[in-house]
Every structure is written in C-alpha cells, then in structure tokens.
Design goal:
It is a single chain. The protein has a five-stranded mixed β-sheet with strand order 6-5-4-7-8, with helices on both faces. A three-stranded antiparallel β-sheet has the order 1-2-3, with no helix packed on it. It has 329 residues and is an alpha/beta fold. A hairpin with a 5-residue loop joins strand 2 (65-68) and strand 3. The two termini are 40 Å apart. The longest helix is centred in the middle third of the chain and has 20 residues, at 121-140. Helix 3 packs across helix 11 (309-319), helix 4 (90-102) packs across helix 11 and helix 6 packs across helix 11 (309-319). It is 38% helix and 19% strand. It has helices at residues 7-12, 21-27, 31-45, 90-102, 109-116, 121-140, 214-224, 259-262, 264-280, 289-301, 309-319, and strands at residues 57-60, 65-68, 74-76, 144-156, 177-188, 199-209, 225-234, 248-252. It is built from eleven helices and eight strands. The structure holds zinc ion. Zinc ion binds at residues 49, 51-52, 54, 68, 70-71, 73. The site of zinc ion has 8 residues, from loops.
C-alpha cells in the first residue's frame, strides 16, 4: 500500500466528482467557493504551525488566517501548500487542476493562459509546474514492488545552454536527448486471453538520469523499488549490480523486434509519454523534463480514478509546500 494520506482524510472530505466544465462552474462559480473548498481540504489534511509545529489552530475569519493555539503565529490559507506565496486567485488554480485532471492529454502553460484569459504568461507557467511537482511528490511516496520491467528511454529535449557550442553528437549520447530510466510494475498473467497482453501493468515511474552508469542506475532503482522485487531487463552492463539489491534479476539480450513482447509496458509508457510531449509542447528544456514526466506518470497511475482525479490532486496540492524554482533564465 502506498504511504498516502490516511484513508480517514478522504472520508472527512466530501468528495467532489468533477466530470465536465459545466459541473465545474456549477460547483465553483466564484473565488469564494474555491477558497471555501480549499480551506475545508486544508483542515482535513491538517495545518502545522511553521513556528512551533503545533497542529491546533483557530480560524480568524476577519483575517482569513489560521492562528496557532500555542504560539499565536498566523498562517495564511495558501502558505505551506502548493500555492505558497502565489498571488493568483484560487479559481485559477482550481480550473487548472480541473483541466489537468479531466483528460489524459496535457495542456501547455500557453493554452492554460488562453483558457484563463490571464495577461502574463510566467505566473501561469509557474503554477502549472508547481502542480506537476506536487504530482511527482505524491507519486514519490509510492515504492514499486513485485515484478518490474525496467529500461531506458531517450526523450527529445533542447540542447542545454552550456553544450550549445559543442559539435552535435548522434544517437543516444546526443545533446538533444535526455536519458530517462523507466520502471513499470508488470505482473505476468497465467493464461492471457487471446489478443490480450501477457502482463498486467500497475504503477509506473520515470526518472531523468545524468548518465547510464551502473552506479547511477542502481541508486535510482534502490530509491524507487522495494527489495522484494523481481526485475526484468535487457542484458545491458549498466544493470549488473542490480541482482545484489533485488530478490531476482532476469537479464537477457533482447532483439529489437522482441522488446514489445519482453518489456511491453515500459515501452508503451515511453512511446505514450513521447507522443504526449510532442503534441503538447514545442520544446522541452531538459531541466523541466522531470516535471512533465511526473504529470504523465501521475495520470497513468490513476487511470481508473476518472472523476476522483480532481479531488486527489486537490489533496496533493494542500499537502505539499511548493518548492518549485525557476532553473534558468
Ligand atoms: Zn505555533
């Protein structure tokens, strides 16, 4: 079981089932309705005083702040959440969460800016990335287990600034490609029905990595998967140390035409993620690729939640304090 929020938190909150824009505008007609819902979620998850760590608070209605019962430090509705220090209205955040969770596809910040009718691009770009970071943090609490497929994907990204003057390399080592380690829980089905896949997929994870050295890969696997794992990989030398960490490691040389059969789900995930990035964004900077992949994995991992997706993202957004920083100019 993922170390997610205790189930009672979900029970405390009246679940919002959002299906479409009409319902969204009915449930959240204005700023006040969003603020009220956000406060309800914060109270269910719990407010922690930044000064003394106290959990008990009064609500100061006139100031619209929580006040710590022990030290009287005040906390705004947004502080300590994904909206920490944000000047954007709650309704912008809510509508963006709805857009991000109402479809499998992704939205560029430009598109969301258009939908919101906001003048400035950057605050919107920041907001969407902050939500992606919250998605990544939520999934970060889950450790993969059981039978796992593992492989690398090479994603097209912009050439990093510091490498712009270097001669362009070809293939996997190209400056136009970012390396991503992809893992998918994939359980063998004993007697698969005709035309159906021989494996059932569970959670997936994607992690941008600097290089394909065995130490790098072993460290990431240790972080993302439990010891009680059976790993399936190709015969790459980068994987030689993994057998010491996991329960079993099946490694074999896989011819290109067999990869879809031997490691089906990592390859479906890689090609779907690539298509989504290509369809939604012009150029992806390598330093932000992880955030886009986090969004992809978050939605993939909750593919059966449909109308509860908004609800789940709202819980994540009150749980995690924003730590997103603009990486380059
Ligand atoms: Zn306090």
């Amino acid at each position: 079981m993922p170390a997610y929020l205790p189930i009672f938190v979900y029970l405390c909150i009246k679940t919002i089932c959002l299906m479409n824009l009409i319902e969204f505008t009915r449930i959240f007609p204005n700023e006040e309705s969003c603020k009220k819902k956000f406060k309800e979620y914060r109270e269910a998850v719990g407010v922690t005083c930044a000064n003394c760590g106290g959990k008990e608070h009064y609500w100061k209605k006139d100031k619209e702040m929580f006040e710590c019962k022990s030290c009287h430090t005040r906390t705004t509705l947004k502080s300590g959440t994904v909206m920490h220090k944000s000047k954007l209205p709650f309704r912008y955040w809510f509508l963006t969460m709805h857009l991000l969770t109402s479809t499998k596809k992704s939205f560029s910040a430009k598109e969301i800016q258009r939908q919101l009718g906001h003048k400035r691009y950057h605050p919107i770009w920041h907001m969407v990335h902050k939500l992606r970071v919250a998605m990544g943090k939520r999934d970060g609490e889950y450790i993969l287990a059981g039978q796992i497929e593992l492989d690398e994907g090479f994603f097209a990204t912009e050439i990093p600034k510091e490498q712009k003057n270097e001669p362009l390399k070809r293939g996997r080592g190209s400056q136009k490609k970012s390396k991503v380690l992809v893992m998918a829980e994939s359980h063998k089905i004993d007697n698969p029905k005709k035309g159906k896949k021989p494996r059932r997929v569970g959670y997936i994870k994607m992690r941008v990595i600097e290089d394909l050295k065995k130490d790098t890969i072993t460290a990431v696997v240790k972080e993302l998967a439990s010891k009680n794992t059976e790993l399936d990989t190709d015969g790459s030398n980068s994987y030689v140390d993994l057998k010491d960490f996991v329960k079993k490691h099946h490694s074999e040389v896989i011819p290109k035409e067999k990869i879809g059969e031997k490691l089906p789900w990592v390859h479906i995930a890689i090609s779907n993620a690539k298509r989504q990035l290509l369809n939604s964004y012009h150029n992806v900077k390598p330093e932000y690729l992880q955030n886009y992949l986090d969004e992809f994995c978050y939605k993939f991992n909750r593919r059966y939640f449909s109308e509860f997706m908004f609800n789940r993202l709202l819980v994540a957004s009150v749980t995690y304090k924003n730590e997103f920083r603009y990486a380059s100019g």
